[in-house]
Specification:
globular, 18 strands, 440 residues, alpha/beta, 40% strand
């Protein structure tokens, strides 16, 4: 029997309690039922949770969402025309409101030992390949994130599945477009699995976009075997009325490399929780990005990177620009366990505020239990460089153009960390489009 916890139930959870669970095989149905009950018992995180004390979930919690439907209009076709994948240079996968759209996708010939497609298809054909990730959710994701991940498990329809056997290299990048569309508040939950065997190599570009009042709630599991290499680029450019929550759990094996760069531009409220665990010696974890916020946007990036093996390296750089009444949050923790000797970790958060009402909360942290490490962190918040602005204006550049040049130069440092030139150009183009929409 479904029951709500004794704490006051939010409209979001009340709706979840009455909605039918998503479909799937019998074994998944049992997992879905338990996940929903866990979400109802746990409740949504609040500001009393340390990791969530800067994130205001009231607008999301007070909304009653209906399940999203697999329908899209002309706006999706326009977005596809503007993006990657129309010229065959990448393998393109399109998800509409969390459902895989095979007719809009284009996947070329794949090498032997590679699976690329929908998560639901993989779960149906090879349950053993995915069943373990549900069992690990409660162990590998922070307690405060459990309700969102549990709701994802209960209601996800589909998501990305990328599985590469040892030694498999994908020559073409993969572009995954997650499209949301709804006239009334609707929720879609996307479950994704990226698993690279020893020595496997791939470049993955994910972009989130849409139109209307929708909520995208994603849960992703990434597993990298020894010496695997994943270049992961993520663009969050959702509609202005949208909500976006995501939880990514990453396991990194010996000498493996995880290189991630994200760009946050859209959604009224967004939050991305990243939990990376370095399990093998001499592994690298790069988690960096940029965010550009305006209006009343709220965006949170929360990272936890754990070093559980020696000689690991972490590089974490986030650049942000917050205008008007926007609110940005960066909470990053690097935790070095006693086994993580010789760890080299670097964390930096820098934000520019463009207005008296713009707000930024930054909380970088180091938690170190090893005695032979090299770790540093820092955070700065300030205004645009007035000297540089004066210099540009003295050269005849209009004030608005000068401000845009300085903003682009500030955030481009994070985007330059993208190794794939096509993906890097894609993000630079989106930054240019954001700047063109700003009036002052």
């Amino acid at each position: 029997m479904i029951s709500l916890a004794t704490r006051p139930a939010t409209p979001l959870l009340e709706t979840a309690a009455s909605q039918p669970l998503a479909g799937g095989p019998a074994w998944l149905g049992t997992i879905r039922d338990a996940a929903r009950q866990r979400a109802l018992d746990t409740g949504l995180p609040t500001r009393r949770h340390e990791a969530w004390r800067f994130t205001d979930l009231k607008a999301l919690a007070d909304t009653r969402f209906v399940p999203a439907v697999d329908e899209a209009g002309e706006a999706l076709d326009q977005r596809l025309a503007e993006g990657l994948g129309t010229d065959g240079a990448v393998d393109l996968l399109v998800f509409v409101n969390g459902c895989y759209s095979a007719s809009r996708s284009s996947i070329g010939a794949l090498p032997k030992g590679a699976f690329l497609g929908g998560f639901a298809g993989l779960a149906a054909s090879d349950p053993a390949a995915v069943r373990g990730i549900f069992e690990a959710d409660t162990e590998e994701r922070p307690v405060a994130d459990q309700s969102f991940v549990a709701l994802n498990t209960a209601f996800f329809a589909d998501g990305l599945a990328l599985v590469l056997e040892p030694g498999v290299r994908l020559e073409r990048p993969i572009h995954v477009l997650h499209w949301g569309e709804a006239s009334d508040p609707a929720a879609s939950h996307t479950r994704s699995l990226i698993r690279l065997g020893a020595g496997a190599v791939a470049t993955l570009i994910e972009s989130f976009a849409g139109t209307g009042a929708y909520w995208t709630n994603g849960a992703t599991t990434i597993e990298l075997g020894a010496e695997a290499d994943l270049n992961h680029v993520r663009l969050q450019d959702d509609a202005a009325q949208a909500f976006h929550t995501a939880s990514t759990a990453i396991g990194i094996g010996a000498k493996a490399r995880y290189d991630a760069v994200s760009l946050t531009l859209g959604a009224a409220l967004s939050r991305h929780d990243i939990h990376a665990t370095i399990d093998g010696e001499r592994a690298f974890c790069g988690v960096s990005g940029a965010y550009l916020l305006a209006g009343r946007q709220e965006a949170t990036i929360a990272t936890l990177i754990e070093h559980k093996a020696p000689w690991g390296e972490t590089k974490e750089i986030f650049k942000g620009v917050v205008a008007e009444r926007g609110h940005g949050v960066f909470q990053g923790k690097i935790k070095v366990h006693r086994a993580g000797q010789k760890t080299d970790a670097y964390q930096l958060s820098k934000t520019v505020l463009l207005g008296e009402r713009a707000v930024m909360d930054a909380k970088p942290e180091l938690e170190i239990y090893a005695d032979d490490v090299k770790c540093s962190h820092g955070a700065t918040v300030g205004d645009l460089d007035e000297t540089a602005l004066f210099y540009l204006r003295s050269r005849g550049i209009e004030p608005l153009a000068a401000r845009r040049m300085l903003i682009e130069a500030f955030v481009i440092d994070a985007v330059d960390l993208v190794r794939d030139p096509m993906a890097r150009s894609y993000l630079v183009d989106r930054i240019g489009r954001w700047l063109a929409r700003q009036k002052d």
